Amino acid sequence: MDEAATADRSLADETYRSLLEEILSAQLSGGAVIQERRLALRLGVSRSPMRDALGRLEGQGLLVRNAKGVLTVKVITLADYLNSIAVRLLIEPSAAAQACNAISTETLQTLRGMLEAIDADPDPAPAFIWEFDDALHNGIASASGNRFLADIIGQMRRYTTIFERQRKLAQRKPGLADHQAILTALNERDGEAARSAMTQHLEHIRRNVLSTY
């Protein structure tokens, strides 16, 4: 691949990541119409990398066509959310159990430090809470050693994250005790305890969301 093609690929990847973060953080909210030219101008990119990025997001189901064929941000419904949690309940506890064998001590120390900072702060920044949540769940998925598990968990977490952030359902310190239990099990390399802690955590999330409806 020549330098120009490599640069185009890198720019497309960067554009994709920027748009994905805007969707996950609800800056681009569900139902918003995607205006390709305006987005390209705002992000300072040409139409080519923008189209590439939008195509990837559409392929992942985060962008959809409405009845008129206009590209919009997918609205994540309660049914979508609950179905995503159901899939996570099927596979994420297994990923947590498998991660006990491979997750590094350094990663666990970093996660423990982040969680302690959240616990100590009377009003932690929501962005930092989400950063920790991503680091924990993505770290576990990656350490499971199963790329297919990690890919599915990542996809399902995008749906649940969008739903929670768009509807501002996260508590000030969501799942603190649950996250502590998961980290303790991982640190002790106790696969069954990690499986149980992750199951409990996801069940708590599901019940908390249903209680708001």
Automatic annotation (TrEMBL):
PROSITE patterns: HTH_GNTR (PS50949). Residues 9-75 form the HTH gntR-type domain. Pfam families: FCD, GntR. It comes from Rhizobium rhizophilum. The keyword Metal-binding does not apply. InterPro entries: GntR_C, TF_FadR/GntR_C, Tscrpt_reg_HTH_GntR, WH-like_DNA-bd_sf, WH_DNA-bd_sf. It comes from the Bacteria. Transmembrane segments: none annotated. SUPFAM superfamilies: GntR ligand-binding domain-like, Winged helix' DNA-binding domain. Keywords: DNA-binding, Transcription, Transcription regulation. The keyword Transcription regulation applies. SMART domains: FCD. This is GntR family transcriptional regulator.
